[in-house]
Amino acid sequence: LKGADxxxxxxxxxxxxxxxxxxxxxxxxxxDTASTVDxxxxxxxxxxxxxxxxxxxxxxxxxxxxxxxxxxSGMPILRARAxxxxxxxxxxxxxxxxxxxxxxxxxxxxxxxxTKNENSDQREEQPDESSETESPSIDTIVEDxxxxxxxxxxxxxxxxxxxxxxxxxxxxxxxCPFPDHDVRLAVWEEYAEEFADDSLVSHIATN
Length: 207
What we know:
alpha/beta, 7 helices, disordered C terminus
């Protein structure tokens, strides 16, 4: 039901409801990424309609913190792993319905687990006759997500060049590179009070 804390039984094992109060200014990126994110946020705020955000980067780059920063604090985010919802149309429909009832955003993470490797050498691969379905392309997945009721965030380890035609959503892409030493140091300095020795902060940022 709308406003209820519990999820439907079919989703309760695969979906988490998150609430965030962070903003983009709370995140630490290198200058180029910070500028890209700021510009993206301004575009989103100055236009009507929902957006599909494709965020590329490895763990630890701020990739999975960005959805919370780009979502109003009063709006819940329904987070699920791609392998649990992308390959199951019924579960994806349930996720859309839940997001509509809660007036929330959707964050689908680990998209790389269900997409085909665009960079793989297909000539060296042997067809797998036991495989019933081919892994979908990112383009196909994003076009299917055009039916979502609101904003959708997608996390992937690889960058993507879109070739899609969306009727209901805008599209934004952002790459979060692994931070260099100075950026890692800035992140850890936010928690410096938790460490007794300043040299430990520098050591962690270096490694």
